[in-house]
Design brief:
277 residues; alpha/beta; 6-stranded mixed sheet; 9 helices; 6 strands; 18% strand; globular
């Protein structure tokens, strides 16, 4: 049996002026600022170093897929990263623009800071604060287009399930297999996306829990992940749509091998969290 292991490299786009101002960005098409362009240059250098290490240890490995959110800040970040990797490694990456990797839609809050919104709309967020305390996975900001955590989970989950199923099949056929030993091929998936989407992926991957072990992801940050083990989802505290979409009793936990910090992880969520008590 040929041993192939999926590896995922996630990176967050560089900083925009909205990030710097802690302004709700959501699905607004904001460009990178100068700091953001410098950050994603470092992101490209970091990913180049990770790929060099992977190819040295696992010579038969290959980059299978590169995807990016179609929002400007993400695909511009992917473009810079691709150019850096091409220059350093001679690998030409073709990033596919994918709307499923977009950031959460923030509804009526987009373009506002939290203080601006509360000043113009006193009392309008009280229902959201109440909903969040009762059911954080399904709470939504005001506005017909706003998205909850679970809504985003549904649109990104198919990418993860494909990798989980491939890993599960190999482990079921050979429970003693070690997919990070010499002789294994690493199939590498590189996804350029947003802070909220990355945190959602980490929860679906069982790397952290939505409420108790939140991982801060800064602009330009790079995360390297590998599947670790099969898990029984029945009775799990992380139920969301994961189990239903998986259509079987087993899921896969992933391991965060590296988290390279590039930018500031303080976001607009830092401000809104002070209002949820």
């Amino acid at each position: 049996m040929k041993k192939i292991n999926p590896l995922v490299i996630l990176f967050r786009h560089g900083q925009t002026d909205y990030n710097a101002e802690k302004r709700f960005q959501g699905q607004q098409n904001c460009p990178l600022n100068m700091n953001g362009l410098e950050q994603v240059q470092k992101t490209g250098d970091t990913i180049s170093e990770l790929l060099t290490d992977i190819f040295m240890k696992f010579p038969n490995s290959k980059i299978i897929e590169c995807r990016t959110s179609d929002l400007q800040r993400s695909f511009l970040s992917a473009k810079v990263v691709s150019k850096v990797i091409s220059t350093r490694l001679g690998e030409n990456l073709n990033f596919i623009c994918d709307p499923n990797l977009r950031e959460y839609h923030a509804g009526d809050l987009e373009n506002y800071t939290i203080d601006e919104y509360l000043g113009k709309n006193p009392g309008k967020l009280e229902k959201y604060f109440s909903d969040y305390k009762d059911d954080p996975l399904n709470a939504k900001y005001p506005g017909e287009n706003s998205e909850s955590w679970n809504m985003v989970s549904k649109r990104i989950l198919p990418y993860l399930l494909e990798l989980n199923n491939f890993f599960s099949n190999q482990v079921n056929e050979n429970p003693q297999i070690d997919l990070m030993q010499d002789g294994t091929s690493q199939d590498i998936f590189i996804w350029s996306t947003h802070g909220g989407v990355i945190r959602n992926f980490l929860s679906l991957m069982q790397v952290c829990d939505f409420k108790t072990s939140y991982i801060e992801v800064g602009n330009g940050d790079v995360l390297l992940l590998k599947p670790a083990q099969l898990l029984q989802t029945q009775g799990s505290t992380n139920k969301i749509e994961y189990s239903a979409a998986n259509q079987n009793s087993c899921s896969v936990s992933w391991e965060l091998l590296k988290h390279v910090k590039i930018g500031d992880s303080i976001t607009v969520l830092t401000d809104i969290s002070t209002h949820i008590k």
